[in-house]
Amino acid sequence: MVIESLISVKNAEKHPKEMIFFGGLYSLVAVFISFWVFREYSSIVLVFLTTMAASPLIYKMIKYEEKKDTQGYSEKNLLKEHAKALSSIMWMFIGVTLMLTLIYMALPQQNTITLFDAQISTLTQLNGQATASYTFFSRIFFNNIRVLVFCILFSFLYGIGALFILNWNASVIAVALGNFILEKISEKTAILGGIGVGGYLSSVTSGLLRYSLHGIPEILAYVIAGLAGGIISVAIIRYDFTTKNFEKILFDTSNLLVLSIGVLFFAAIIEVYITPLFF
Fold it and tell me: Rounded to whole angstroms, how far apart are CA atoms 65 and 83?
């Protein structure tokens, strides 16, 4: 009742960048509790606890967005209103990712392996050799569509269910980003015999660019889909499906879903054809 009450929905939407702090705080507390209390299962528990801390705020935000659907906004203005919630959630996701990346890089290796065991296993399965081709693009895009469908279903069934998927993805990206930065630092150290502040900064910058180019639009697509599923879920809970407003709610969520698929397609293009040109 303490962590989730630190910021209100209106303040979160008015000052979305503040959510980077709360995302970091949620994940930091989750890491400490999961590692010291549930060490054997900490890689999953930390995602669950991060989700649990953020759930009250995000659920209130979804209810707030659903209410906007019934207040006579035009569809254009309604999408602008939803953009405030999307921005807040994205900044929270960035906060979770950055905090987990920092923790992954700072902890001793044996603790890192314990704390991120499931994420490391997932990355091992994903890290295959791939070339920019239509076949690879199709595999990436349709795999991401599958995740997007899960976001919609989880949000529809559990209200904020997509939040767990987002935090899981944040933890996986954190491990991948941490590995990339550490490898770059190791390479520069081996070549130069040492590394200064500039070397660390360039390694971190390179890592952030490597994963943010396609990662941010990809996660944004999941957030949009999750918001759409959550709005429908809240509308049903409130019995808005029995009112004339439900048609507008369906139209709004349909637009959000189409937008999410378009953003996901764009993210897949970047991941397959653009990112490999630089990294």
Answer: 10
156 pLDDT tier (thresholds 50, 70, 90): confident
Single pTM value for the model: 0.88
Give the HSE-up count for residue 210: Cα atoms under 13 Å, Cβ half-sphere: 17
Is residue 279 classed as helix, strand or coil in its secondary structure? Answer: coil
Length of the chain, in residues: 279
231: Cα within 13 Å, side-chain hemisphere: 30
Per the rule left: phi > 0, alpha: psi between -120 and 50, beta: everything else, 72 is: left
* 39/114 Cα distance (integer angstroms): 7
pLDDT at 52: 92
User: Mean pLDDT, the chain, as a whole number?
Assistant: 86
Q: Which two three-digit tokens encode residue 93?
A: 């996701």
Contact yes or no for 257/225 (Cβ under 8 A):
yes
Query: Position of tokens 């369906």?
Result: 250
Note the pLDDT of residue 191. 73
Q: How far is CA 190 from CA 14, 103, 158, 179, 194, in A?
A: 46, 24, 49, 16, 7
- Are the C-beta atoms of residues 23 and 7 closer than 8 Å to each other? no
Return the SS3 of 73: coil
Reported as a single tens digit per residue, the pLDDT across 107-144 is 998 899 999 999 999 888 766 555 666 788 888 899 89
Q: Residue 143: which of 213, 89, 226, 222 has the closest Cα? A: 222
Cα–Cα distance measured from residue 136 to residue 138, given in angstroms and rounded to the nearest whole number: 5
